[in-house]
Amino acid sequence: MEREKLQIKAVAIDLDGTLLDDARNIPRSTQALLRELAGQGIQVVLASARPLCAVVPYAEQLALQTPVIALSGACVFRPAGEKYLFEAPLAKALYQNLIGFFAAKNYHLKIYGRSRLFVREAIAETLRYAENFQVPYTELGAAGLAKPTEDIFRIFIHRVPAAEVGFLQADLARLFPELAVTKFEDNGIEILCRGISKGNAVAKVCSLQGISMEEVMAIGNDGCDISMVTQAKVGVAMGNSCQELIAVADEITGKNTELGVEQVLTKYLR
User: Fold this and answer.
1) Percentage of residues of the chain with pLDDT beyond 90
2) Where are the alpha helices (DSSP H) in 103-185?
3) Where are the beta strands (DSSP E) in the chain?
4) Residue 204: pLDDT above 70?
5) Domain architecture of the chain: domains with CATH
6) Does pLDDT of 3 surpass 50?
7) Residue among 118, 113, 73, 57 nearest 224 (CA)
């Protein structure tokens, strides 16, 4: 791709495995570059699968004025003014049918409200996640899992045996056509409302600024980033990306531990 022909007005960036290093920090030099680009009028949009409470602190750290995308596109929030711009919770009946489908299956479900994790019972993964990402959680028990105390936006099926991922994804897509079902990491499956994705959320955010996807660069590393990487003018995969994303990206940059975001932004935008 020829740099001089690009007119990039917005950059959409995933957090974990992309912008953040393995200690879940934004490297200082990358922070400085993002502030520099924002000062030049380039919109910096954070787009994460995390719940809202675990995304907003990074936007505040970077002093971003643009809305943030949480829950893989199911929630778009403007921290300045604390305004929800878009939300797509799962319909209650659909959610209850999903829980019924999983009732007899031995999968660990991570169920996401806006800023809270719900589980049947807390396991070591729940405690690790809550501590590492600063996300509060609530144990609902088997009976209470179908009746959460708030809207549900995202379900993540954790540690599916590798041999079962494809079959489970196909079953869910067949039985629940109202859903978007995506492979996430090597052995996880993400469930959202149909039509909800990071790519569509980035398009919504950019349209508010009068920016088209032909003027967007998107950077990610996992399956939930495929939509925004393929919809953007310049789609970038990190060096540590899954093979599915690498296959559709326009550009491969360094790993998240090698300042990969900074490398590609410097190449095209500085």
Assistant:
1) 87
2) 124-133, 141-144, 162-175
3) 10-13, 43-46, 68-70, 75-78, 83-87, 108-112, 117-119, 137-139, 154-158, 179-184, 188-193, 216-220, 234-237, 251-252
4) yes
5) 3-87+196-268 (3.40.50.1000), 92-193 (3.30.1240.10)
6) no
7) 73
**Predicted model pTM:** 0.94
Three-state DSSP state, 118: strand
Exposure pattern of 60-88 as b/e (b: 16+ CB <10 Å)? eebebebbbbbbbbbbbbbbeeeeeebbb
Going from the C-alpha of 112 to that of each of 75, 116, 208, 249, the distances in angstroms are 11, 6, 26, 29
In the block, tokens 């778009």 appear at 76
Task: Of 161, 36, 52, give the one whose Cα is nearest residue 44.
Answer: 36
For 165-262, where are the E strands, in sequence order? 179-184, 188-193, 216-220, 234-237, 251-252
- Give burial (CB, 10 Å; 0-12/13-18/19+) of 7: exposed
Residue pair 70/224 in contact by the 8 Å Cβ criterion: no
Report d(CA 52, CA 77) in Å as an integer.
Answer: 8
What is the average pLDDT score of the chain? 94
For 239-245, the CB contacts below 8 A with 24+ separation are 240/17, 241/17, 242/185, 242/186, 244/183, 245/220, 245/221
Dig out the tokens for 82 from the structure.
């604390």
What angle is formed at CA 29 by the lines to CA 231 and CA 79, rounded to 5 degrees?
55
CA angle 179, 56, 8 (to 5 degrees): 80
Q: What is the pLDDT of residues 87-109, one digit of tens each?
A: 999 999 999 999 999 988 888 99
Residue 208 structure tokens: 């508010």
User: Which residue, 152, 172, 151, 169, is CA-closest to 160?
Assistant: 169
